[in-house]
Amino acid sequence: MNISIFGLGYVGCVSLGCLAQNGHHITGVDVNKFKVGLINKGQPTILEKDIDQIIHKAHKEGKINATTCVDEAINNTEISIICVGTPSSPQGHLDLSYIYRTAEGIGQALREKDSFHIVVIRSTVLPGTNHKVGEIIAENSQKIRGKDFTVISNPEFLREGSAVKDYYHPAVTVIGGDHKEALEKVASIYEQLDAPVEITDIKIAELIKYVNNSFHALKITFANEVGNICKALNIDSHKVMSLFCMDKHLNISSTYFKPGYAYGGSCLPKDLKGLVTLGHDNYLTTPVLSSISPSNENQKKRAYTIVENSGKKNVCMIGLSFKEGTDDLRYSPSVDLSETLIGKGYHLTIFDKNVQLSKLIGANEAYINDKLPHLSELLSNDLGQAINDADVIIVNHKNFDPTPYISLLEKKTKVIDLVRVDQLKELPNYEGLCW
Ligand SMILES: NC(=O)c1ccc[n+]([C@@H]2O[C@H](COP(=O)([O-])OP(=O)(O)OC[C@H]3O[C@@H](n4cnc5c(N)ncnc54)[C@H](O)[C@@H]3O)[C@@H](O)[C@H]2O)c1
User: Fold this and answer.
1) 273 inside domain
2) Are residues 177 and 227 in the same domain?
3) Among 200, 221, 248, where does a domain finish?
């Protein structure tokens, strides 16, 4: 395929070399004449393992060239990949001016082109950029998105220092777009890579890179804070973290990565508090660890705000224990939400098939007697009746089967889902906590 690459920096240079190595003919475009000159001499624009030989070989085989002329690049290629920089502005916002200028240039060049053109955004851009780039191209080309051109989002995940290796071995290739044939064509560029190609919504493809990199930053700072506590206690932090990483069930896994309600129970809040206090007692600041609990409290507030915004006072909560399949009420975030609702004058009915007051014992009984002393007056064992009598329904247990209650639920003012019960999503009065 004939492909043009806009921006011959880190991402552009690696993409140019690697795509050429996979058999494509690549035209590089940059506003920087020096970089264009380097490519045309068979030299990379960056210092990176293996890239010298790749660019040298591709140049010798006539598979790459570079230019500052946008028209030339657009006329000779069917796909243009944008890899220009997206730096932060001094105020911390994303500076998309290079992206927009590139889109203007591509749009103007497309005026004179008759065949369909695919523009791929490989740079890291915030959700909404794909749409805006499409508007800029349409305005400058006087052509129609979907008929004459389209814009695909395809974020790059490589890391400097291992860029060529990362290019050939990504965990996944993400492609977002609204044009089926173009998506298939862009997917075919990556068919030689040993990785799944995931076609998704445009905004998901735009956001994922930010989620990935924020998580990577979180991992680093989390490990560093653990390291600082370990050092203060004369414990080898590397031994601790390698043991941590051996747990592929709960630690290095997809467990707990589902957006939803706050955590609770008798262990997570207590043990987190223990570690934060240990750091504090050793005169350490642990901003990441210390912000976990406030973030969790914020999630409880979000749930309350949705109830408040419904404007109704009759509420039915399905699920009270900190997770389904248990009657453990200790530090359950739903107990906190119940307490808030009662305190604010709501009429609350709770259904939890596992919670029977007569069977609660020990610390569990003491906890609930302290937090919700009138629980017996709130509990219902008739779910249909409880739903019928309420205006607002809060679902807090994923094992709730709404099938027999759908016609009742759709008449309610609001059905608030804290745990994502997929069957509820079709209800017209449905609101998810964070989706
Ligand atoms: N560097 C990385 O490790 C990495 C990894 C993944 C994604 N990204 C993202 O990829 C994008 C590019 O990053 P980079 O590190 O390659 O940037 P870079 O600064 O190394 O290169 C950008 C290039 O774009 C050129 N350019 C600017 N305006 C242009 C225009 N109108 N037309 C043609 N060329 C133009 C610049 O001259 C420069 O050569 C950024 O959004 C970045 O966040 C970077």
Assistant:
1) no
2) no
3) 200
Has residue 176 got a pLDDT over 90?
yes
Spatial separation of the C-alpha atoms in residues 350 and 327, rounded to whole Å: 13
At residue 359, the pLDDT reads 84
Is position 267 annotated as part of the catalytic site?
Answer: yes
| Tens of pLDDT, residues 224-239 | 999 999 999 999 999 9
Cβ of residue 123 lying under 6 Å from some atom of ligand 1:
yes
Helices (H), 142-236: 163-168, 180-189, 202-232
Q: Are residues 350 and 227 part of one domain? A: no
Report how far ligand 1's centroid is from the alpha carbon of 88 (Å): 12
pTM of the predicted model, to two decimals?
Answer: 0.92
Question: Ligand 1 atom closest to Cα of 155?
Answer: 7
Q: Are residues 329 and 190 both part of a single domain?
A: no
Say how many Å lie between the CA of residue 67 and the centre of ligand 1. Answer: 16
The C-alpha atoms of residue 87 and residue 97 are separated, in whole angstroms, by 9
Residue 188 sits in the same domain as residue 164: yes
Give a yes or no: residue 281 inside a domain.
no
User: Where on the phi/psi map is residue 252: left (φ > 0), alpha (ψ -120 to 50), or beta?
Assistant: beta
Q: Is 80 in the pocket of ligand 1 (CB under 6 A)?
A: no
Together in a domain, 68 and 121? yes
**Cα 87 to middle of ligand 1, angstroms:** 9
Q: What is the DSSP string of 223-256?
A: HHHHHHHHHHTT--HHHHHHHHHH-TTTTSSSTT
Cβ–ligand 1 contact at 106 (below 6 Å): no
DSSP 89: P
Range of the domain at 93: 2-200
Find out whether the beta carbon of 213 lies less than 6 Å from any atom of ligand 1.
no
Give the Å distance between the CA of 8 and the centre of ligand 1.
7
Is ligand 1 within 6 A of the CB of residue 153?
A: no
Q: State pLDDT tens for residues 97-134.
A: 999 999 999 999 999 999 999 999 999 999 999 999 99
Task: Give the pair of three-digit tokens for residue 65.
Answer: 């060239």
- Give how far Cα 362 sits from Cα of 338, 351, 365, 385, Å: 21, 22, 5, 31
Residue 170 located in a structural domain = yes
Q: Tell me which residue has its CA closest to atom 7 in ligand 1.
A: 156
Which of 227, 257, 287 is the last residue in one of the domains?
Answer: 257
Residues 92, 209: one domain?
A: no
The structure tokens listed for 211 are 């989620």
